[in-house]
Amino acid sequence: xxxxxxxxxxxxxxxxxxxxxxxxxxxxxxxxxxxxxxxxxxxxxxxxxxxxxxxxxxxxxxxxxxxxxxxxxxxxxxxxxxxxxxxxxxxxxxxxxxxxxxxxxxxxxxxxxxxxxxxxxxxxxxxxxxxxxxxxxxxxxxxxxxxxxxxxxxxxxxxxxxxxxxxxxxxxxxxxxxxxxxxxxxxxxxxxxxxxxxxxxxxxxxxxxxxxxxxxxxxxxxxxxxxxxxxxxxxxxxxxxxxxxxxxxxxxxxxxxxxxxxxxxxxxxxxxxxxxxxxxxxxxxxxxxxxxxxxxxxxxxxxxxxxxxxxxxxxxxxxxxxxxxxxxxxxxxxxxxxxxxxxxxxxxxxxxxxxxxxxxxxxxxxxxxxxxxxxxxxxxxxxxxxxxxxxxxxxxxxxxxxxxxxxxxxxxxxxxxxxxxxxxxxxxxxxxxxxxxxxxxxxxxxxxxxxxxxxxxxxxxxxxxxxxxxxxxx
Length: 474
Fold this sequence. Notes:
Blueprint: E1 3-8, E2 11-16, H1 17-38, H2 44-51, H3 55-83, H4 85-104, H5 109-137, H6 143-172, H7 185-191, H8 194-203, H9 211-216, H10 220-231, H11 236-250, H12 270-284, H13 287-300, H14 305-333, H15 335-358, H16 373-390, H17 392-402, H18 409-437, H19 439-460
Antiparallel strand pairs: 1-2
Main location: membrane
Transmembrane segments: 15-35, 55-76, 88-107, 113-134, 146-168, 188-207, 268-291, 311-330, 337-360, 372-399, 411-431, 437-458
Protein name: Sugar porter (SP) family MFS transporter
């Protein structure tokens, strides 16, 4: 079996092909995360027209899944600690499959919202479990790259959903037009999500349980077997030493609760606050405005519906490519330097977008960017995606999967991910109303948060490159 070898803590560890495959299988939850959250992009105008929604109601219909995601992320940690990481991934797959069918056959806006919330719960669970599981089965020297598979899967899911939206809308002659079996194209956009949900559910039946969860449950023989598989450790003394390290780091005989996150600073441990703020800033820079509303946005400033879909797909391709670059750099340059570059770049490009929309004429659907301002805004938006995809997209998930001590990892990640989903909901739900105030104001606000994120990284974020999970501290 092919492998990458290193010496960590005096023990020879291998990044085996098996650990790559099981990490990829777990990261497929990220694919569903990206697909399920971005699929609404192509359906926004059709849903708004079908149900006669106001700007505020449209914002809620688009963002309601994120409330479910916050709920799913909140309970994912306790569920994973009680029943295991793998069983929890299976629950996420089931919820996502049910949501795809329900949303596709929704008969009204409230019915659609219900099924989107169900899918959101599944997304929230997957968003917590995948990075936790990948971090817990990965050797330290490649943990950043394997952890970045989560973000790669997310951006591939976004790309697949936007490509699917564009193809379905093109085949029907518009997202609101009838396609197959009397169903509008926007309904098929949701129904197609059933396929990856079923694939995810099937694949997670073939991955082993996390060795750290097995140790926490006292199942040492099983943990030894998994460590032997994923790290390639053959020497019994090395296996015993690794098991001892894990046992020592866990230091618990009970399931962690929110009380374990309490600390001297505003009621929480400093590392928990850092995780929460990483999550919040990742959303407050406005990235999901691009992926949830971009088709509507470009359509509103003069591009045709077909061109708007094409631009959105092209942007998602850019996102995938820069995520691959981030994966190549994360274990070489570290997490913090990439976050610094990303924050600075996003601040500049968001400010440029704000300037571009300051030159817009008209309002609402008649908004026009004259002269070269439209192309400048398009370039700035894609440059913004480059900086995000290189930094805050993958780095936040890598850090959340590895920065917390073993004894609180699952529940701390659940709290941080819940904060992320609530921040995502706030940004997504308010964008239509902010856009009515003015896109210059909206993008200027996001640029301000990008500047604040730069200050936060420089002052508070600790580099974790090459550190063993057992070395993480409060």
